[in-house]
User: Fold these one by one.
Assistant:
Number 1:
Amino acid sequence: MNNMLMSEKKLETTQTKISAKDVNVYYGDTHAIKDVNVEIPEKTVTAFIGPSGCGKSTFLRCINRMNDTIDVCRVTGDILLDAEDIYDKRVDPVQLRAKVGMVFQKPNPFPKSIYDNVAYGPRIHGLAKTKAEIDEIVEKSLRRGAIWDEVKDRLHAPGTGLSGGQQQRLCIARAVATEPEVLLMDEPCSALDPIATAQVEELIDDLRSRYSVVIVTHSMQQAARVSQKTAFFHLGNLVEFGDTSDIFTNPSDSRTESYITGRIG
Amino acid sequence: MSDATPQAPRKSSSLLSVDTQTQKRNSAENRFKNYGLIAVMAGLLALVILLTSILNNGLSSFQQSFVTIEVELPEAKLDKSGTRDLTVMSKVTTFGYAPLLTAAMQAVIEENGVEIEGLTKKEIGGFVSKDSAAQLRDFVLANPEVVGTTQSFTFLANGRIDGYYKGRVTAASAELDKNVSPAQLQLADALLDAGVLTNGFNTGFFTKGDASGQRPEAAGLGVAILGSLYMMIVVLCLALPIGVAASIYLEEFAAKNRFTDLIEVNIANLAAVPSIVFGILGLAIFINFAGLPQSAPIVGGLVLTLMTLPTIIIATRASLKSVPPSIRQAALGIGASKMQSVFHHVLPLAAPGILTGTIIGLAQALGETAPLLLIGMVAFVKEFPGAPPEGFFDPASALPVQVFNWTQRSDPAFVERASGAIIVLLVFLILMNAIAVLLRRRFERRW
Amino acid sequence: MPVIWILLIVLALAAVGYVLGRRRAYASAEGEIRKLHSLPAYYGYNAAMLTAVPAFFVIAIWLIAQPILIDARIGALIPDSAISESSTRGLVMSDVRRVAEGLDKLVAAGSLTDEETHNLHIETTDIRELLGSVGTALGSDVAPEVLSAAQDYRVLSGAASLGMTILAFVAAIGGLYYSLKQTNKDFRARNTVESMVLSLLVVASTIAILTTAGIVLSMLFETRNFFSQYNWADFYFGTTWSPSFSGRGGSSQLGLLPLLWGTLYISVIALLVAVPIGLYAAIYLSEYAGPKMRSAAKPLIEILAGIPTIVYGLFALITVGPMLRDYFAQPLGLGESASSVMTAGIVMGVMLIPFVSSLSDDIINAVPQSLRDGSLGLGATKSETIRQVVVPAALPGIVGAVLLAASRAIGETMIVVMGAGAAARLDLNPFEAMTTVTVKIVSQLTGDTDFSSPETLVAFALGLTLFVITLGLNIVALAIVRKYREQYE
């Protein structure tokens, strides 16, 4: 199934940031992702939805090669970032991940201070030379993470002492501190309460102006609220990809319709 | 490709080229990885050096030089009364037998036409082990009818002669050694050619008791192996039931209160108490207070039991814990009592794990030395302990203590013996661990 | 009657009890098993346990109490005049026991009748020679008081053994009778048996406490004796260790500090070897190595942990010591001794490698994967992740592991006995032979020990010091590790 034609039609105005061609992923003998083709546009929020185990998180982790850390995982096909194949032998995943940041399902602040959490990325990538520069990056990132006002007085308190929602925003701030071009979010709100979820969703909307955001979510409402583009995965296949409004109001595939109306999932 | 400015290292650069910063980081990564590899290799190398050193030094102890000679047993010397009365015959000490050996050696030298300059009579007599006279005497006393005949015997060669064939003694070192002369070494070569002296497998190493510092060639591990076996029997009979009972109580029945907390903390700490402290306990309680005999396997077994208990309890509790609660609930659900559910269902399912833990605990106990030194196991024991149960109270040695004992002697031949004993000990340990691994493989269950 | 026979007879009675209990239960239910409260076997178990357990209990108590009571009785009989200047009551008592034991042997060998032993007199018989003939060697001639005390001792222990035998059988038969009387179809046999089993389980689990109590009490008691003969301050702050060999010369200097210094010096070297290698090996094997390498290298390194310490001791003695002396100490002019702090430290370090690595491995694996993902997702390399995220997160656990390793090193005996030497000195040169607390415990307590001289008793003070140090380290380390585990659970 190739939904490229449809998506290309509606994306004439924006540039493609990430493009996947015939991507297959295997975990040992399990075929987890089957022939996925997708073009993710720049400066948009793209949501991956689908029932659990459909491969949406797996595909997300392919985009910054986090799957490399799993021994049995094998990826075929091409994923292009700005027209460069990220699975090319010459690509260093370390450099790639600086460009393609990631936020995880469970907030995972390091057992360090808030300041050090955010400064970690810039330090390892050598983005700043002086203490002042780092201070500046930390403040900027925490502001972008919409958490500056809450933590500015206790930057040296441990990051693990924050509430769940704060921790997740701290993790987002930590991810944007390395100046990525793409932000991958793997169910970033699944461990949060509704109020914290609303705050994070608002933040995601803000981030769209600077980054291409790809978000995996199990909540269709969340996808509808935050994304402009939606991809529906089912059993390792990309069933349908298009504007969020289209997918939710006028799905072209019967499986998408079944999922959206709650008959499968 | 490399026109990226340091201020904006990646923004303008392509993913396909690795920037200098990343190169630096990658080489740091490789360095770090190599440190790890070096550490692993260092560990493995230490293992290899340790094992080669022991094997190098010890393998030769399984081989031994023997001399086969015809010995005349004249009645005039051995039984003056002629009545074959043992009480009379036993009055002849080993000093009475030694000249017979010397004569027999001289005879065999002449017979084979060996002529060596400067070979004295004393050196000829000293060619066979000092233990030979005792061996001869024991044989004659056991078989009085042989007196007056000529019998063929296989004796151990002197330890230095044995060492000559193992590369420990050379003509040069013999020059400086008052226990062996170069002439004796020449004699050895001549007798080897004549087939009188043979190098063969050293069965006595496994069957004989310890021997004094003057006769390393006669020292064997028999008493030590038996002593270790007795101690392991004691440990098994005490530690297994007590350990399992304690674990069942703590894991299945105990309420969470101060008393059980105290027991738990106690067990965790006992597992880490230095082994020598258990030796002090054994000396003070079992020997001084309870009046049990020194050097006895029963005391060693008791001390090792207390040492092994924490290991067995920890292993047993882990395997009880790994039996899922659903099994217990199933048993309780059809009306079994708690005790029945534990003894009929949980315990059998945990048995392989308990057994594995017990074997590992036993292996630990088998190799333990320090506490045994304090309870007198280090004493010189030549006689075998009796049959159980009385034998548990007879003096005995133990494998690791025998090793220590031999390392304290001055003759370098004992270093070879000690290394050989270590090989025997390690073989036992490997066997026990192999059984434990097999058990685990065979019965391991994943719930 | 020998204890073993009593035990066997009691067991046989218990077996009889099992059969009778079962049969009686059946009979009371008129052969119909449904009428019984419990399964018939439980009635059997009930009878068997009531027969055996009290009897065994009696025997155990008796065996513990008998020597104490008899010693007290006989000890009181020995007049003060019989205790010479250089001796103590304890020493005389051990002579008494020896003589009594020898008399037992004589009776067993048939060379004396029981009657004759009572009529032995120091004037008429050479007791020493007589006892020597059955292998009981005595250090000196037997004093008349000792002989008569030994005779009393035999009479008393004979009576006591008889008492124990009778009491044990009374207990066994009484238990059997009581249990059979109890048995009828309504008797709750299962509940009774289960509560008895439960109390046995409780008793088994208190053995751990009894062991600790035994350790502490035995050492405290003898340490108190030691400090009554030797000034505690001289022991803890003395810088010279030179026990006199003459026995009670009073000229011994028993200062702990040189021993403690040797112990700590060797332990530090051991940790300097073991911690970096063990930690890096654990990191490599858990974070970098492929499954094949891991499954091969991990068990191989763990073999090092299964090797008895005597093997390491021999390794130090015949390989490492001479090598260090020939290639380092002698060329550098640092010493001539094969046994040295360096030898013992390095070999002990090798021994501790698997200990550190497997503990660190557990601890590193307990760091949640999400932290690694978070760091890798930011573009950190693996080594950056390990050094800046994983190790700091695991640090408390690693500290705990190092403390446990230190406690091992301090308490290790065989390696230092064979590799470190016996000379107590306060020195910085690592190629010099030094000695440790454990070495001195072994040397003071092996061979002929005289429990009244400070030279022997000092070993208990050393043991207590060692126990307190290692216990302290263990408690702190276990607390740290436990707290660390809880953090990530």
Note: Residues 189-229 of chain C form the longest helix (41 residues).
Number 2:
Amino acid sequence: MARVLINLPRTARRGEVIEIRTLIQHVMETGYRPRADGSVAPRDIITHFACLYNNEEVFAAELAPAIAANPFLSFSLVAAESGILAFTWTGDNGFEQTETRSLTVT
Amino acid sequence: MRRTGSAPSRRMPSARAALLVLLLAGGARAEEGLPSLTGEPGDAARGRAIVTSRQRGLCLLCHAGPFPEERFQGDLAPSLAGVGARLTEGQLRLRLVDGRRLNPETIMPSYYRTEGLVRVGPAWQGRPILAAGEIEDVVAFLVTLRD
Amino acid sequence: MRRLALALLLLGATAEARESSFALMSPETQAMQREDSANPGMLWVEEGRALWDSAGCAGCHGDVAGMRGVAARYPAFDAAPIDLAGRIAQCQEARQHRTPFPRESEEALALAAVIGLQSRGIPVNPPDDPRLAPALARGEALYRERRGQLDLSCAQCHDANAGRHLAGSPIPEAHPTGYPLYRLEWQGMGSLQRRLRNCMTGVRSEPYAYGAPEYVAIELFLMRRAAGMAVETPAVRP
């Protein structure tokens, strides 16, 4: 379980634009770096991130080896209704992690 | 200060050459510099490659110079532009080999000294930063920097 | 001139004369340090919060907020000069009777990060303990000692040439106010000792082993030299 920091307001007014910030602890091994013994370290990165808002995808990102370790992704969305935000990160070596947060819209 | 003796000077400056240096310098400090480490002329092209390498010469970490293709040149030391006009081959060699003889507080590493160093890493022990032939290559290049 | 200024600083002159390397960073990197939601070091802080409970620190120390001001008063003296990481390890070994987290391990950095955070904004102030005097002198001597195949001392860059550029990088005054910190170059968290080892390797010198008393002595000297500057842990640096 990678450590994750998610920053978003607990409540918002209907129609308000809110900013969501996510930070996940993960190496980003490019797949090109030689190790001390000369062999190339295999790629190990997060490849995909998606945010579902009440099961509807509102934001997604494809990540490539140039992305830094511990990637920070920030995006905005319109607070339409109360519900659940699900954040899913997937990557090499079968990495997959989902975090959920609730949003109350008044 | 103009260069003295035959060019490129490879032999120990004669007493006459030293006197000439003194006269031309108008009585200022006569710094003789060092004679060739190998007796063979250095290769200026190889010298340029050493100077611009941040792994071998390390020069651009501190010095800027006439290298338009090299970004991020340091500003801790005088620019190398024109250094071949300001210093003789022997003087350039002295500064490279052991600049501490001229200024004990200098940050210029001694490129051809192995004594008196503290806790040298195992990978670097027992040898100077540059080999004698590399020193001659660098000197051969630096004397070409006239403007 | 710089030597005189330094001597004055060690005698307790104002902190305003000195500059944190925070000031040398780009606005984007500064923003990364300022925003807790974007600062990757906060991932280690969160890890540290969890360890504070799971590793049993809370059992004696209560809430980690009680650590306020602690990190600002290191290195200290306890049987010998000791840095904060050494104190944590000593606590685990002597009082918890467990194998301490190894130096520079993720757990050790996480605990140091969460404890350091409790001192963020507080002026650096290592104790004025006379028993620290020999270590302080040794630390200063090590700071001024030329070492390595390149034959350079810390002082030659960080006192005499701070503000000038080594290749493209501005040379900071080297005040370790933000450790452990997240270094973009490391893509991870590291201690002051890691950074000192990088510098020593950079001048082609053999670094001391992690935990060596030489590092505690150097840190003591640097923290006295930085006295009055605000703790920045967890800092972000290029």
Note: Residues 41-54 of chain C form the longest helix (14 residues).
Number 3:
Amino acid sequence: MPGTATCKSITTRCLVGGCGLFYASAVFAVLYWFIYPSWPVGDTWIKGFGTVNYAVTDKASGKEEEREYRWNTRALLLEDLGDATNDPQRKEMLAKVQAASYDQIVKDPKMMEFVRSVGKGLFGDNCAACHGRGGQGVVGMYPNLTDDDWLWGGGMDQIHETLVQGRRGFMPAFGAVLKPDQLDDVAEYVLTLSGETQPSAASERGQAIFQGQVGGCYYCHGADAKGLQSQGAANLTDKIWAIADVPAQKSVQDKKAAIKNFVAKGVNNTRIMPAWKDRLSPTDIKLIAVYVHQLGGAQ
Amino acid sequence: MSEESISLYQKRIQIYPRSVKGRFRNLKTGILVLAYVVYYLLPWLRWERPNAPNQAILYDLPGRHFYIFDLVIQVQDIFWLAGVLIIFAILLFFVTGIAGRVWCGYFCFQTLWTDLFMMVEQWVQGERPARMRLDKGPWNREKLVKKGLTYGLWLLIAFWTGLTFTMYWVDAPTLVVDMLLGHAPYAAYFTTCFLALTTFVMAGLAREQVCTYMCPYARFQSAMFDHDTLIVSYDERRGEGTQGRTKLGKGLKTREERQAQGVGDCIDCGYCVQVCPVGIDIRKGLQYQCISCALCVDACDTIMDNLKWPRGLVLYTSENALNGKKTRLVKPKSIGYGVILTAATSLLIWSVLTRAPYTGTVEQIRQPLYTQMSDGGIRNSYEIKLNNKLTAPMTVGIRIEGLAGATLNMDGMERIELEPQERIKLLARVQIPPVGGNGSPGDQVTFVIEPLMGVQAEPIRRQVPFYIPEGGR
């Protein structure tokens, strides 16, 4: 029958074709073992023919040199990353930023665009773990870098110094020095400084402690309570609370308690900014400094 | 029936088209010359542009700009390309519905390059019988030289075709020099060689098989045919008469003699079959292989003219006309396609003519969403993207409105000079004084981005949210 004949013919052809493909795949697989790295053999492995070149920094000499590696996807990634950092346009902008002063960078739209782009990555890699992806920090723990209140100063040179040297926040614990009702009075006074509450008899007693020899708070926070950036002492008169989380508390009692708690315990070995001079290159520090500076709204 | 007799594979039968003279041949040659002049010479045309490449047509992929004479297309305007493709598609439907496979017969690059390659072949190897003799004959010196010369010329044309295509994507003179010196990028060599190879294979070797087996357009154009569509056809009534076609013979020399005996006008000379580039016999009716090149019309007209009989035994006609009915050119389908075509074309032209000289977008930075300032005020930050689409510099000013007491701080970049075709991202900070209350989800600020120098255009206004946290802080 013609119909059967056709079917048989097609089936035969398909089978032959299918088997052919199967054997071809098998042969290809064996070839593949030798073209690309594959099986372990003794204490080595089949290394394949392909090689990948990328630059590595020699640990001993600190020099960057191009090295040849056996083909593998990790090497390919490193090669790609190398290509990205070696991009001529990127290098050109980087050289420009390196040569420019902080003032020049801040005034140049193109350089600032570059700094924001590169700085975002650097900030994400090195700073975001504490200060948050957007630099907003965590109240009481890590300063918010986006506002205009700076414990250690928001000028470009001060940010640079903070990055290079690191910072260590310190405030003595007054729990042992002051009695509980004195602590209450001081907290009451601190609340009036930023207009949270109206002055009262308690706040006046607190003021006497703050400004007098009993508490001696004015040594660091200043007679006007506006803080002292060289000591990292907070400005107590503005609306920003970097250490005691006052805004989160609903009632005046709770706000007072938050302040009292901090005054009693003080700050010691809890607020530390590491020094980055040994971890990051001067260029990276410069880029991060400008990036952080523009986050805070340029002082 | 044995298994061997049924095969799904048909071996190609070599076609040796004979040359022909006539009006459709002239039309085809005219279109061919025009198309090649445009294609091969256009990349060499220079065009004065300040601050931009001076090639009239340049598709600059790395720079993300398409330069077409005075029109500079940026990457965000790429939807125009979609518009052009839609217009081409509808144009194909529209024309095919009325006039059949006009695209295939006269304009398609497969047809054009095959035609050119056949001309070369005929110039070197001679007319149809000579070519057939050469193919059948032994591989002697003559065959070697003629075949070699043909293939050599084909390769040369194919190479130049590939190179010309590549020229549209880079500066043409630089490319040619770089190619010869071996400095051109890998992509340029690959593109040129790939296109050279496909041109050689498709136009030199595969030819009509591309239209018959490979091309989807060839097949779906048949779906647009109706009984009024123009087709190249054989007038069977006239050609066959009642007794069929017969060669000129004794007592069958004049039309009157033949008609008296019921013999048709077709003298079965076979000229229409010999000139056909796809190797079909038009007298067998409408066939899917037919690309409507109308060379058989020219062939038959030549014979009819020689016999002093009226032309039109093979002619452009429609199925309705062949059956003695009227051909309707204005039909609902054509009107529909016509309306869509006009609308799409007008829309594209309008879109191109009213294109903005620059673009500006504003996006709220959402991490952090807001910042509480030391005086109790609230700040939101925004990223502004500006793009100067002109090949001239311009100055753009940015201000805000619509939010009470708000101030804009951009570190002095509220007024910015944009280089030609520059695009840039800027940071904008908007701050309001202490509000002492809750904001509402509808709080918004409007950025006004206006050109100050270099161009006259409407300002761009972007309304974006301004977030005020609970309690105003």
Note: The first helix of chain A runs from residue 2 to 35.
